[in-house]
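Q: Shikimate kinase, please. Structure only.
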Amino acid sequence: MFIYGLFGKITPFRVTIRNSAARGLRRRANQGADVTVTTADQSGARLVLRRTVVLVGMMGSGKTAIGRALSHRLAVPFLDSDAEIETAANASIAEIFARDGEPFFRRRESEVIARLLTGAPCILSTGGGAYLAEGNRRAIGQHGVAVWLNAPLDLLWDRVRHKDSRPLLRTADPQATLARIFADRTPVYAKAALHLDVRHRASIEETTDAVLDLLKTRKDILEDLS
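A: Structure for Shikimate kinase:
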């Protein structure tokens, strides 16, 4: 499977697929088949994923960790838009920001997200700024469902304060910068179809359970056939 590279080249990208059933699903999707995903969760419930679940929210909210856990539980592919951009550009997000600027990155981000949304149902983790673009929100609404992982500001700061991979926090006062970004973005994240409050000290498994329970309220997204 291919995406258009950041610099106009056709570039292969990797998809993390958890098992042989998911690999077969991806092959059928690539051949144009209309497919859904059926799996059983830990309680034995038969679950059908009908549309892509797109995780949105602040840096440090747990999109990647929860996305991988959901992918494993539902036996569907996990995709990360930031990782796909880095692979296509052969550079980190921070390097792309420094070299080409944020507007360039956001344009390429939108291109990648649009392509990742066209495959079979999967779990898609997006960068913290991706949902701010109206075009991205529209594409996500057409092809999947947005789930906002709403983590409190103090938890976000605890998670990102010692990491140097966040280009937007490379300021004289990163904590104040994070607070400003949080305030600016929260009203936009609130436009997501589904919201989950991320609790302090909640494990990945507990948060994943909560997301699954939330998704089960939407039979057009995740249907329990038990």
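A: Brief note, in case it's useful. The chain has one domain: 2-224.
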